[in-house]
Description:
This is PCI domain-containing protein. By secondary structure, this protein is mainly alpha-helical. The chain contains 13 helices and 3 strands; from the N terminus they run H-H-H-H-H-H-H-E-H-H-E-E-H-H-H-H. The N terminus and C terminus are likely disordered.
Amino acid sequence: MAAVASVLAAPLTSTDRLEALLLVARSTKPRGAAAVNLIHQAVSAPGVFFFGELFDVAGVAELSMSSEIHLVAGYQLLCLFSYGTYTDYVHLNRSGCVPELSRDELQKLRQLTLLSLASQHKALSYALLHKAVGIPPDNSRELEDLIIETIYAGLISGKLNELQSRFEIHHVQGRDVPHPSLMSSPALSALSSLSSSTPQLDQIVASLQNWQSCTVSVLQSLQSRMDETRHSAADSALQHQQHRQALLHNLIESQHLLESQQQQQQPKKGKSAANPMDIDDVDNPWAAPKKKATVAGARGSKRSRA
């Protein structure tokens, strides 16, 4: 019961929270304005920071090819929260490509911007962060609150170094990575931060290819070890069987030899053992003369009586 309670009490992840919206989208199949409304619900939902699965919704994908401005703006908003930063928002908002964000949506975009910067650096100075997230340089308290809030959301871990005015990153969750088929779309081309992260994407691809080659090498080594073990086991089983057959053969031969010896030691049929009374007492040489003397004495006494 305690284990079940701990599972039930576990906090929902961003994927879990987005899944609820995806279930509604799969059942209602939104199109047009309904798809835009789905995007607004996702970007404003608390605890939802990753939106890549929304691009798989058919109605959302159709927005990129729409000729209506507000529908295209909805798709651009999704691209902004999926791959963009606060600087991209400032540029797109000035050009009228995306609507004005609410305070909570703006705070979420700043947190996502922090993730993008933290994935490229091990330490971020306060000066760089102030400029990147649009917080005035004289308001370090608001910047630190943003970092602490991002840490509590489970998106990043690190240490605030107030002495050196920097944030030292220990771990950060990666953001969504656009599919190569989307890279040529106008919505993604409008994100200046995404073009600067292209080398990072190439590095990710190179790392994945390196991981793949290492994995293949390890699998081949394991397969070789398994084959050697299998052959060794087969040889051991064959040797064990041969040894067992040799022992069985020796046992049968020993049994036959023992039976043959027992048959040779048994007396032949029709001949009984000699009578002990018929055997001369060779060990007592005085037995026969003594018997004769007794007989002679008996005869002599008989004559004297006559």
